[in-house]
Write a structure and sequence with these properties.
alpha+beta, Immunoglobulin-like, elongated, 14 strands, 6-stranded mixed barrel, binds zinc ion, Barwin-like endoglucanases, 234 residues
Length: 234
């Protein structure tokens, strides 16, 4: 056997070993997953949880809702015992590990809330935001974006005026220009308490940058450049 061949076999063996250990750690991670917070649909907050080492024993789940200052406004505890066909199909014991709790959003002020679920002292994956207000729904943080403003003037819109790249006519408190590769056209986006629609693009708008449409150039100057957390509404 040539040296080259030996090296090649050794490399193949190493690759196989890495591949197998990769599979192993993936499957053991999946099997030990304690559950997840899956959905918020109106008042209904749902997910699943189990103790993989003791699948016959239902576990308790605590769901917490906290406001934007981090203060808990609601805490609900339930047993994860609802049958879910998807969990059974994944080979998780009896499949009876679903949970859901009901949150009365009308009992708390408008705002953005964080919903978490815990089981056996462990936070379940799937923590999400909920926007409680006129445009309520489950929301996902897209991170902090650079926020600028533009108006129909020639300097801002290069002669396009109120005509956007999607054909929509731009309006204040509604239109934003985005990088469609980062924020797809048609997305409803919450910035600083206002829900906008992604319906325009701009030459200088790339990645985590959003340009907000204003009626006057004066407003674009007053608002300047800001850095804000941006939420995508589901
Ligand atoms: Zn302008």
């Amino acid at each position: 056997m040539s040296l080259f061949r030996t090296l090649k076999n050794a490399a193949a063996g190493l690759f196989l070993a890495v591949f197998i250990s990769g599979c192993f750690s993936f499957s053991s991670l999946a099997a030990s997953l304690p559950g997840a917070l899956d959905t918020i649909e109106g008042s209904l907050i749902s997910g699943w949880a189990w103790d993989a080492s003791n699948p016959g024993q239902p576990v308790e789940v605590t769901v917490t809702v906290s406001d934007s200052s981090g203060k808990a406004v609601s805490e609900m505890t339930t047993a994860a015992t609802n049958y879910r066909a998807d969990l059974a199909a994944q080979g998780r014991g009896t499949g009876s590990y679903g949970f859901s709790v009901s949150m009365d959003w009308s009992s708390v002020p408008e705002g953005i809330y964080t919903v978490r679920a815990f089981s056996n002292g462990q936070e379940l994956p799937g923590t999400r935001r909920y926007v409680n207000g006129s445009a309520s729904g489950s929301a996902r943080s897209l991170g902090v974006f650079k926020i600028t403003g533009y108006c129909p003037c020639d300097a801002c819109s290069e002669g396009w005026g109120r005509h956007t790249s999607t054909g929509a006519i731009a309006s204040a408190n509604h239109t934003i220009a985005v990088d469609p590769g980062t924020v797809p056209y048609g997305s409803k986006v919450l910035i600083n308490g206002v829900v906008y629609t992604a319906e325009d693009r701009g030459g200088g708008v790339k990645g985590n940058h959003i340009d907000i449409f204003y009626n006057t150039h004066q407003e674009t100057r007053v608002n300047g450049t800001q850095y804000q957390e941006v939420f995508l509404l589901a």
